[in-house]
Amino acid sequence: MAALFTGKVLMANRERDEVETERELGRALDNKVLLLYFGSGRCPRCRQFSPLLKDFFLRLTDEFYVERASQLVLVYVSRDETEEEQSAFLRTMPKRWLAVPFGDAFKRELELRFAVSEVPAVVVLKPNGEVIVGNAVEEIQRMGPACFRNWQEAAELVDRNFLLAEDFEDWSRRSITDPIRRLKYKLDKKTEAKTKERKEEGEESS
After folding, report:
1. What pLDDT, on the 0 to 100 scale, is given for residue 29?
2. Which residues does the UniProt record annotate as the domain Thioredoxin (predicted)?
3. Distance (Å, rounded) from C-alpha 100 to C-alpha 77?
């Protein structure tokens, strides 16, 4: 996937760092499903969809929701009118997002290459750059994180250690306190197991 961005510059979200060397791009992009998010902070449909995409991304990559981050990377390709608008939008999005720098002509090249005519649009790519889904906006809205399984299979990425820490079907109904509740549940189960173990040891010694 890094080949798509050879000689190009990507920005790390909320930082001035540039991800531009082949080695850095390879580490950031290779062996991962790549989402190209074409959007704008001013677009009403984007403002409606972006929080959903943010939640979708976090539930697949954030340690609160998964045991280990999925093989997923997102690059924001903006249609914002100013650099300030782009920066303001990205500040509300996950830190792991990457972005094509504001004013970079490469944005137009990507729009033409993937036939993006309107926003929001989410192009899903295999690690080798082949298109899995031309625009996954509707799929993400309808299926939530469950659609990543389909993309993972289509991209032929084998990652048996990747498990969602929750039921896919309930993702949209979960509250922000769920990770805390799940952590407490895990701790309670560990305490319960230790108590049972001590009790059995006591019975054996008596």
Report:
1. 77
2. 1-142
3. 6
